Amino acid sequence: MLETDASSKASLKDGNTGEIEVEPGTRLRMFSGKSGAKSLVLERGTIQATIWAPPGQFVVDTPSAVAVDLGCVYTLHVDNNGDGVLHTTLGWVGFKLAGRESFIPAGAACHTRKKIGPGTPYFEDASDTFRRSLSTLDREDATHDERAAALQIVLTQARSRDALTLWHMLARVSAADRSRVYDKLSQLVPAPAGVTRAGILHLDAQMLDLWWNELGLGDIALWRHWERGWSQESNAR
Fold first, then answer.
1. pLDDT by residue (tens digit) across 81-135?
2. Residue 190 phi/psi, 5° resolution?
3. What value does the mean pLDDT of the chain take?
4. pLDDT in tens, 40-54
5. pTM as predicted
């Protein structure tokens, strides 16, 4: 266990893994998994991670999601309620709770909530209106009218790079709204060979992965390769 008070910081370094800067007001636990992967449990506070270990060898567990490094630099904050936010500055990070997963590339961020898991990632240069509307769509208590208005704003304002957000939204909006998200994403990044409208509307996992690889944000096969191993270790804990 490592805990910093309101005026102290700490630095952790492993020559084979990376370096972690621990900000004031942080509590975390450290251990190594059976596979040799280095793991932290961030209970609260903020860490800045610079990881040079092979992808999937560094995992951070939080009360609301598990973050898996895929060769990157990122900042992760967890508040006293167990909610968090991750900002990636290099590479990309996988964020998961149960069956809900998000991929956060450099320049993007993702909020996460306890018992719900990661929200929808977005690039941090998106407009405030876009980000507020996305937050509304991630809320479980949003009304039908609030969701409809928020979805219209997101689809209208989405830029080419916001294909990141729309790809994640395919599995998070209602079946009735999925076709609208599909149409907008197709305008921004045409679906590759082997990906059909019907398949995406039925959330075919293989087709979703193929389309992700068209976004130019990293090969999802890397995530799938490591997902099984670290997920099993996390569940065992």
1. 999 999 999 988 888 888 788 999 999 999 999 888 999 999 999 999 999 999 9
2. -55, 140
3. 90
4. 899 999 999 999 887
5. 0.89
Per this entry, what is the length of the chain? Answer: 237
> Tokens 């929200």 label which residue?
119
DSSP string, 5-70: -TT--EEEEETTTEEEEE-TT-EEEEEE-TTS-EEEEEEEEEEEEEE-SPTTSEEEE-SS-EEEES
Four-way CATH pick for 1-119: 3.40.640.10, 2.60.120.1440, 3.40.47.10, 1.10.238.10: 2.60.120.1440
Nearest alpha-carbon partner for 205 in 236, 227, 229: 227
223 near 201, Cβ under 8 Å?
no
Nearest to 87 by CA among 97, 77, 78: 77
